[in-house]
Fold each of these.
Amino acid sequence: MKELKLMKGNEAIAEAAIRCGTDGYFGYPITPQSEIMETLMAQQPWNTTGMVVLQAESEVASINMVYGGAGCGKKVMTSSSSPGVSLMQEGLSYMAGCELPCVVVNVVRGGPGLGTIQPAQSDYFQSVKGGGHGDYKLITLAPASVQEMADFVELAFELAFKYRNPALILSDGVIGQMMEKVELQPQQPRMTEEELIEKYGSWATTGKTADRERNIITSVELASEEMEAFNYKLQAKYKAVEENEVRYENYMCDDAEYLLVAYGSSARICQKSVEIAREKGIKAGLLRPITLFPFPTKPIQDIAKHVKGILSVEMSAGQMVEDVKLAVNGSVSVEHFGRFGGIIPSPDEVVKALESNFIEG
Amino acid sequence: MKEEIIIAGFGGQGVLSMGKILAYSGVMQDLEVSWMPSYGPEMRGGTANVTVILSDSRISSPILHEFDTAIILNQQSMDKFEEQVKPGGILLYDGNGITRHPERKDINIYRVDAAEEAAKMHSTKTFNMIVLGAYLKINEVVKMDNVLKGLKSSLPERHHHLLPLNEKAITRGMEIVSEVEV
Amino acid sequence: MDIKEIVKEENLVYKKSMVLTDKEMHYCPGCTHGVVHKLIAEVIDEMGIQEKTIGVAPVGCAVFAYDYLHIDWQEAAHGRAPAVATGVKRLLPDKMVFSYQGDGDLAAIGTAETIHACNRGENIVMVFINNGIYGMTGGQMAPTTLKGMKASTCPFGREPQQDGNPLKITELLAQLPGTSYVTRHSCHTAAAVRKTKKALRKAFENQQQKKGTSLVEVVSTCSSGWKMTPAKANDWMVENMFPFYPLGDLKDE
């Protein structure tokens, strides 16, 4: 049954986590995402679905509890904001190295350091380029609405298990704190151990039974040749992700002469900028990457063929713009516009930046 | 139809919950809605504001720098948001504690002395509903029965006995709001 | 007598536990790890819990512990074993879960995870190998290195003003309400080995009875790190380690 609610993005994450049958959540409070664990604790899902919810002593501990639960083949997640996600990078590198699926939510705030608690998008590099040590990637989804916050929890779990890799929901303080209408899916039961094995294979540590070999979750391999072979395997997996999982949305791009590229809350702002620009007679369009890794390289290349300039808009000093530039590879001029440190750009500012970069003089 | 509203005042005045009730009323009327608060330390004893957008089509930016309506409940917010009302837009304010009254001539200015009225009703908590009533009188963006449904949905069940008092406060706000000539 | 006449079932006095794999151990001669691995394997064997036990291995010399016990394992990042074990046990409460950690892992880089797992009373077994040195990385100072004891990062002996004091983490953990059984043993004599095994058995039984955290410390030698023969290392341990880390139960509830 369709259930329409008004809720914050953070609350939607928690509700969706319970409803899609998540087995466990481990986290540590940090603004602006504390409502996620608060909502879970208020719902007490351990009484209904059997979902485990635990407040850990740190983000270091939470990601390692996620590691333990994920190693048992369970659907386990955590959430945090920028400084906390920095602390999780060790665990995420290990999980990528062990090929463990999990979902991590980063409700980004401005940095560096303790920074601000206001929204930002300055963790793009950390999210899509690996973040921790070693050659690995996180499958990264960028929700732009409260509905997508809810929908992407299940999607992130699906992708994480399909590729046996951590998946990240890269949100920010705007999407986390704002309320919108959201349609929640009905409660799904948690998968049993047998169902998990049936669907994803028997690689998890559930106790070595007589009918199978031991399962060992590890990322250590001291023989360099074998470590290189494993790295090739990882790279092949990331290539498959790039080939199969690119998601994006176009807004008024068909006749666009100028293209904005923006994700998450910046994409919402840019949608308004497109409207304002069109009222002024500037044919602007917006491409919104929904997956940041894999990045929508090909769709941007295609649009680049018929536009005069591309403006990458982020609440950062210019991070995603590098991937946009790599995508078009010099075929058209690419510029960056951003506010950061917790400042959110206005739709008008974006239009002015578009004009000053490509149209005036 | 699209109405872009900022509600701004002190933390503790019920700014965020008033916005939430307005947004919920929009949901009841089958509108698209967004509610975007200021958050963090500034909420604690300082200024609080929330942007509410009601629209019959998909909402783009939830964060705005100009508004159709500004509902202003303290002097700091007056200083910040008077300029951000679109020409021809609405500025509704409570006169309590206001030392510099609005001066623009290209917008429609209304005043509701809600703090004073709430004191008369012996319930300071009705303050934000008096303001909401005043706004709905000026601009009926949502129908009264949807407001009552929205109120019910956004209040926790343990507070449902307060629904009649809140309804009374909304009605009172409608009665006492007045237009100000600059 | 022909050898075939000797090798008979009725003459069998000792047999390697089936829970131990056939992999040759990488530990140095005289190292305590091998003995403790064997004891855990025997306890798992005797309790009949091989199919439901999940081990969490550390970073340190025992990083490859998973090569030697025939059970499912997770290899944790340095110090994170108690958090990983928490995740495993919370998601699979019916399984038997233990962490196996050295002094650097448990008492330095993983102190927070150790204390909080014990304080929550996670229903797990923690096995703590304390040899007062970092053997894996070449003999650096550990949190439990004794005063005056030499290590490659305190080559003139541990000096508290410069290097801090040796940490009695086991005493600290015994204070926490979540721990039900905290005990300290060694493996330098046959009798000591038998006592250690009994302690491990009790710790696993506590987990079956959902008693909370059981911690078994084994004061151990590191012949290579200490630069002594195995026999000399045992003597040195008795003389120097035991006075500071006395053996026996610290808590049994």
Amino acid sequence: MSRSVVSEIRRNHIYELLRKGRRMDGREPLDLREISVETGVIDTAEGSARVRYGETEVIAGLKMAIGTPFPDTPNKGVLTTSMELIPMAHPDFESGPPGGDAIELARVVDRGIRESGMVDVEKLCITPGEEVWMCFIDIYSINYDGNLFDAAALAVVAALKSAIVPASNHDKGEDFPLPVTCVPITATMAKIENTLIVDPTFDEEMVSSARLTVTSDGNGDVRAMQKGKSGAFTVEEVNYIVDVAREKGDEIRKIIG
Amino acid sequence: MNARPKREVVVPGDLLDDKGLRPGSGTYVLDGKVYSSLLGVKNIRSNYVNVIPLSGRYLPQTADTVVGKIIDIGPSNWLVDINAPYPAPLHVNEVPWRVEFGDTARFLRVGDVIMAKILMMDETNKIQVTMNDSGMRKLQGGHVIEISYSKVPRVIGKGGSMIQMIKSMTDCRIFVGQNGVIWIEGELENVLVAAKAIQMIDEEAQSSNLTERVKEYMEKALPASEQADIQE
Amino acid sequence: MDSDIVMVDDKGKRLDGRTADELRPMKIEAGVLSNADGSAYLEIGKNKVLAAVYGPRECHPRHLQNPTRAIVQCKYNMQSYSVGDRKRPGPDRRSVEISKIISEALEAVIQVELFPRASIDVYIEILQANAGTRCAGLTAASVALADAGIPMRDLVPSVAVGKANGHLLLDLNKEEDNYGEADLPLAIVPKTNEVVLLQMDGHMTREEFGTAMEMGVKACHEIYEMQKDALRRRYSTEADEQEVEE
């Protein structure tokens, strides 16, 4: 049935379950869905990964090229992230240029990567001020059942971690692994009535009032955040979410090694 | 009923018959032969060869009862999503209340779930639904799940045996819409067990001894007190 | 371009070991996505393609509605990382054209008159490209349509026949395509051998064209068997047990 209208019955059922600490798919509030990560799925990309969180599925791919650096960072490689919410993924997604949701997703994922310094961009400088490696990260939603933020971020991290810089194709010496310094992991919590849950499904997202996305690094430090939707959190809730996100970060970091 | 013939999966374009059977649903005729137009199961009944679909959207038939969701409101009608290719209008004359022009939202709102009957489906596939029939109403409380409409007969079972078993073991009220939308109401724990049992039927319609397996699952999953009742 | 490269060696083998009329290894899986009404994943050689179908559903925008039948709206899209040099996201003239001819080829077999005013939306995503993506996309799309329960006369297998260094070769890969002198993508309705998609560019003699068509039609029948097998595999065990209310 039309997904954008959640029936009153389903909304109340989700509420009723959560008041007892339960969820429609049998999880508890702090349980993630089953996560799967496959890397090297696209031969034409320098790095790629297909990630599933339950039925949510995304593919991220990295393409690299040689370009000129920005004038204010002459010795740093360039990183850009795009997200496409293609209509294949959900009956409510429409064709066309990225809208607000897709741009927000791409920017939040980008911030986690950039602010954690995951990619050592100084090692992507070929000739200062003249030639640097440009990294184009493209993320495609394949099937959307909630929590695209975390799935997209994990796909990008896995793609980058497994990427090889194609130096030999450009007469720039031998190929080398993309220099990666840390593994930032993104975890999102949604607020439904007064309960906070991780890894929301589509229906849970639809009935939630607010969400908070937190990216933490391997030291447990916070590297990026994004609050979304029109509801609000108390300061205590924010602190709680940050702690849960750091724990989930460790849990997920183990999956991708 | 005679022994069940072996079911044969056919795909669009498969030859179904060239010996004089008549073309039934899910078929077409080319040069006097009957071919399948669907992915489904071949079925021969009284000189007709049909293909029973394994997937696809619900196509309403007059007098079907369905579970639908209000997705839009006009001054003299509501728009009901019944999982069909088209939304189904529900006119104010087709509800059991007296509704003044422009007063529709007072009776049914966006997101409300109703039980309705297909009043008609004309040759251009224009659908109309009605609530002016016994038992039709707005549904409140409980839980709504969706399965493939082609599995509805399996959920109901022969002579209603499957759904009766689920109802009596879980002590839930269950309404199975012909469109694959199912409403379940009762004790929360039991509702969850009933929902899971029905999803099992939807997903594992292929496994043998399905009735046994569903029963076994429910016996394990239901709280002990319920089980005691059943064993009596 | 190096015209001395040997496309077919003295044993009749191509660069990747195939004979002139041999398809690349192919794999099709039906029903791979949970949200779509029907879907299929297809690999042929190094091509990786996903197809998803939504519908029949209400047609948007409304002015495209046809009061007597459904319209088929295909969107063929190459993902940015699917090719050597990153492709900018979004449609270009090539993908709009391909989308149009695939829509028309599918419309030829779908019983569109059963769904007046509705739209049947077909999305083809090229995850990895290695020559022949429009044919791979169409082949996958027709499996996805059947998986979605859309009534149709037949499936639509599709393949391209190329000419490289004077040889007619079935289903060119990227390496061969780089030396291509002609390309002839086609799709047929196997039951009747009607041709529902046909393009050609390059240079072929009249005789070569006739041979190329024959090669293509024959290969389409091979692909057809793999399409049917993918659909049967998805449901065969299920149907053995399926009880139908009688």
